Structures are given as C-alpha cells and as structure tokens.
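Hi L.,

You mentioned the student needs an example of a multi-chain input paired with its predicted structure. This one should do, with 490 residues in total across all chains.
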Amino acid sequence: MNNKLKIVLAEDNTTLSLLLKFRLEKEGYELIMAEDGKEAIEYIEQQMPDIIITDIMMPFVSGLEVISHVRNKLNLNTPIIVFSSAGQEEMVLKAFNLGANDFMGKPFSPNELVIRIKRLIG
Amino acid sequence: MDRVQQFINYYNGEPLIIQLVWIVACMLFFTTLIFIIYLKILRVKLRRNEKLITKFSKEYELLLVTYLYTESGEDGEISSEQKEVIDKLKESITNKFKREIVVLSFLKLTNEITGEMAESIYNLYANTKLKKYALAKLKSRKWDVIAGGIRELTLFHVKEAHDKVIKHVNHSKREVRKEVQLYLVNLFNFKGLNFLDDLKTPLSEWDQIQLLEELQKSEDQQIPDITAWLKSPNDYVVVFALKLAKIYNQFGMKEVLIDLLNHTSEKVRLELLPVLSYLHVLESKEVLKKDFNSRTKDEQIAIFKLLENLGETEDEPFILRHIHNSNFEIKFSALKILKDINIEKFRSFNLVPPESEFVKMVLFIENN
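Structure written out for the whole complex:
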C-alpha cells in the first residue's frame, strides 16, 4: 500500500520540474509531472492528488484554467500553489479569486516550496 | 531516344519566342526542384538537430540535478559524484553545439530558482570552465557574439571578468553597451555605476530605466557620490544622475543642482526643474525668476510647474506679472499658484472680468 502524499506538478520548464521532483521525492512525496495544463488536468482527474502545484503561463491550457477546472468542474478542495513570474501580479490575483491557496514568485527557493507544501498538507 | 530527337526537332522548328518560353520554363522547373531538395535537406537537418537537442538537454538536465542534489564533502569540497558530473560536462563542452545546450540547461534553472542552489549552479559553471568560452566571445569581431558573451557572464555572476567587460563600455553598438551596463549594475550594484565616469556614448531612456530597475533590486541602497556625474561632459550621464538624485533623495546636492540651471543643454535644464521641485530646492527660485525671460518657452512652463509646488507669498509679484501671459499653460499655472498663496487676491479676478476666457479659467481653478 503506497501511503505517500501525491503532488501533481504542472510546469513547462523541464529542468525545474526535474529539480523539484528530486527535492520533493526526497521529502517523501510522490510526484506526477505534467508539461502543460492539459496534461495536468488529466493527471488530476486520474490520480486525485493531495496538492497541486502549477505554473501560471503554460502551453495549451494555462494555470488559471487548471485552477478553474479543479474548483468549478471537479469541485475539489485540493490545495493549489501557483508559480508566477515578475509582471504577472494581475494573474496571481485572478488565481486567488479562482481558488488558489498560495503563490510563489519566480525565482524561488525550492526549500521554501517544501515548507509551504508542508504547511498546506503536512 | 526517338522522343528526345523528336523534341529537339520540334524545338528547332518553333519560333524564337516559343524557344525562349521553353528555356524559361525549364529554368524555373530546375530552380524549383533545387529549392525543394534544399528545403527537404534543411527540414531533415533541423528535425535531427531538434532530436539531438532534446536528447542532450535531458542528459545535461539530469547531470545538473544530480550535481545539485549530491552532498558536497566536508568544508563544501566537491564530492566524487560531483567531480564525475563536472568531468562529463567538461568533455561535452568542447563541442560548440553541446556547449550551447549545456549553457541553455543551466540558464533554464538559474532564472527560476534562488538561494543555495542558484549559487551551486554558478559554481558548476565556473568549475566546468564554461567561463573560458564566454570570455573568448569578448574578443570576437562580431558585436552580437560579444553581447552574448557578456550576457552569459552576467547570468552566471562571473565577477572576475570585470576588467575585460568594461573595455566595451563605449562600444559602437548600443546592444553591447547595454549588456556591459547591465553586467556592471547586476554584479556590482551601485559600485558598478563607475562606468559613468568614462561613458562617452549615449545612454538611452530605456537603458536608464533598466539600470534603475536593477539598482532597486540591490540590497545595499547606499548610493555613491553623484557630483562627478552631475558635472559630466556627457549630457546623458547628467540626465541619468538627475534621475538618481530624485529617486534616492539626494538633498545634499542642492548647490550642484543649482549650478546646472545654467547648463548648455536645454534637455538637461528641463530634466533638472522637476528634480529641484521634488527636492524642494527653494534657493533655485531666485535664479529662475531673475532670468525667466531669457529662458525657452518649455523651460518657462516647467518653472511655473516648479512654482506650483514651491510657490510662497514672496513670489506673488512675479506670479502677478504672468497672470496674463500669452501662453495658456503659464497663465493657468500662475492662477493656480495665486490661489494657493493668496486666495483673496485670486478671488478678486473673479469680480473684474477683463476678458471672458480669463474669468472662465479663474472659475474653473476656484472650483477644482
């Protein structure tokens, strides 16, 4: 029986995804990586993760659409952390309005991300 | 063979114009054929490169992440696993194509993360001797290669390249100069502004905005003495120094700023007036009122904007002299200032209508 907490990470920067996968797996989480929003939605529906981490700007389906899908279509209360870059303040506000729980501005420290995940899901 | 012979006979028997049409048609056919073959080869080559980039990117990303997550030895020494990664990368970067992919993989991460990991990437960049290739770019004859090299040195925080980078501070290409400036300010913050001492070329408005933005990110907000830049023979440097004086509240620069009121460049003088207003340099008012008529119209308007902020009761006679100025903006400003410093006098204009437009202005200012 796998008791690891599941995280869906939607991030189009493959190097960053790989880095976070190593870091978060080291902390005992199971990581499911999606390269765009469309893939992320599929994994969320299939895997029902304990937390979702998503970048705002992604190809095909954006992070905002992922949040909207989770909150309005799937009606899930899964905690969502959003990554944003400089100049995306408006997007972050929209993400919070759609139901995001936390956000991290890029560049960020992976250690800080771990702390925030622990605060949301333990 | 018969068909070829038949065609030759047919061709020879046709009039000259038809023969020419045949020649052009054949030429077009072969040109198109050559282009199709060329595009096919190019597409195959691009696809192959794309596959190689994906393959190598994955390989280098994995090496990079392995390096970052491998524990360093005691006292931060490089561990054997990390040494292995460095050796593999060193071997790869001798090839230009692979080197570019390695740098790209590093950059993908440095732009996204901060803290110890970002520092580790800079160390890895230094340990793999990638710096050597970036420095070699600075000797290139092509300006875009130089600019790319400086940019790489900036992104990987290579401070040791300072002396080699600063040599390009007056490069003929603006793009190279911009990269030099960003390198200096990004890596050395306010100390990096020393390039202004030697700058003989223009510093565009956009360049200035970028430099100010980078300076604001600096933790140490201790600004150096800007006197020399305010006295620079390069007008662009003076304008930039004025921006620094305003943003960093350089109240101690009053005397130097007042001296600039007689600067030869009108642009400098026009940039100076809002700074004087912002820093509340009241002493500048006397100088400005004294030679008001000898200044350009734009300056006169800017002086009244300054007085809107710094106007006092003692300025009333000067203001009253310009209450009927031929320039609308000056007249409007004068009335606004008068309203602030002497409301009774201002209201008296409301009672005596010398001209209807004037009274309309007075009423507008009174109600707004």
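You could point out the following to them. DSSP finds 20 helices and no strands in chain B. Chain B touches chain A at residues 57-58, 61-62, 64-65, 68-69, 105, 108-118 (CB under 8 Å).

Best wishes,
N.
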